[in-house]
UniProtKB/TrEMBL annotation:
Protein name, per record: S1 motif domain-containing protein
Pfam families cross-referenced by the UniProt entry: HHH_3 (PF12836), HHH_9 (PF17674), S1 (PF00575)
SUPFAM superfamilies the record matches: Nucleic acid-binding proteins, RuvA domain 2-like
Organism: Loxodonta africana (African elephant)
Limits of the S1 motif domain: 205-278
One GO molecular-function entry: mRNA binding
GO biological process: translation
Length: 281
């Protein structure tokens, strides 16, 4: 599930791309360095490489109200700041992770469903509509979005941004929803098989029902009731498996949609499940 990074650390191990060790490292990093200011700081956590960041970043949110308060308090007790976080390693000690310079600046997009890979597109879209990050979730943002879409349409707008309709729809949702909005709150629980409750119960070929948790550029994460979301690679979300309505959405599958899937691969040590989409229920 989506988690607020500075509030729900005990649940990190259930997020795609994370495991018990990485969850522990995130907690230890936060205890040593203070709260995470933005998603980019996750790259500094030991054991959390580019692939893990790509998988987990879209599920993790940064509470902007909390960070604004923290930054305001910190600025009053700090004489100077470079604006860039260094490695803070003592000389003579072996570095456990390649140094990564991360700008210490809150990013309002970090509390949306928009994946960091799409931030550049989101900023260009904001430029298209004449919007700003300060307007995220406010009525004026929705008005500007509606005005552009009524004039250009979502397909033409997506083409102008050189992206897909699905990616643009996720961006629009993220910019329209207010801070702290979690679109999973009102979801009904999917119908899970009672005999399958953990990763070890799964077998290749097993057919399950689940609910879409999140959609990314590389695939769809689905909750199948085993404490770890499975991934449907984007290549497996084909037009033939979707209804006419979904086809018009450019192969879009949104959070909360019920799907029937088949288990293709299980990697127990890495807690990864690869799924194939059978149909949308």
């Amino acid at each position: 599930q989506s988690r607020l990074l500075n509030d729900m650390s005990l649940f990190f191990r259930h997020i795609a791309g994370l495991n018990a060790n990485r969850a522990k490292n995130i907690i230890e990093w936060r205890e040593k360095n203070g709260p995470f200011i933005n998603r980019e700081q996750l790259k500094k956590v030991k054991g959390l490489g580019p692939k893990s960041f790509q998988q987990c970043a879209g599920f993790i949110r940064i509470n902007q109200d909390y960070i604004r308060t923290f930054c305001s308090y910190s600025s009053q007790h700090t004489e100077s700041s470079t604006g860039v976080e260094g490695t803070n390693e003592k000389q003579g000690k072996k570095k456990s992770k390649t140094p990564v310079n991360v700008v210490l600046k809150p990013n309002p997009l970090d509390q949306t469903c928009i994946h960091p890979e799409s931030y550049d597109i989101a900023m260009r879209f904001l430029s298209f509509i004449g919007g700003t990050l300060c307007e995220i979730g406010k009525p004026e943002m929705q008005q500007k979005i509606n005005s552009l879409l009524e004039k250009e349409g979502i397909k033409k707008t997506a083409e102008g941004l050189q992206t897909t309709v699905h990616t643009l729809q996720v961006i629009i949702d993220g910019l329209s929803q207010p801070e702290s909005f979690d679109f999973r709150t009102d979801f009904d629980k999917p119908d899970f098989k009672r005999s399958i409750v953990c990763l070890e119960d799964l077998q290749v070929g097993t057919v399950l029902t689940g609910k879409v948790q999140n959609a990314t550029l590389f695939g769809i994460f689905v909750d199948i009731g085993v404490g770890r979301a499975g991934l449907i690679p984007i290549r497996n979300v084909t037009e033939a498996k979707l209804s006419k309505t979904k086809k018009r959405r450019s192969l879009g599958l949104g959070p909360g949609e019920r799907v029937e899937v088949r288990v293709l691969h299980i990697d127990v040590p890495r807690s990864r499940i690869t799924l194939d989409l059978i149909r949308v229920l």
